[in-house]
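Handout, section B. The chain below has 60 residues.
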Amino acid sequence: MRAGTTAVVMAAVLALPGCVQLKAPDKPIEINLNVNIRQEVVVRLEKDVKDLIAKNPGVF
């Protein structure tokens, strides 16, 4: 009886991998890095404004 039970369990275990399906997502994965890019742009603009004011103090 034990051999019959083992055979049934083995058959069930071998049948399980056939049920697993992998599917690629419909949309691509998106990584949002706007925070770092925005900080870099703000720093650059701030430096440019300081340089502009230093070169043309009478404008402002």
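Note. Residues 34-55 form the longest helix (22 residues). Compare this with the example in section A.
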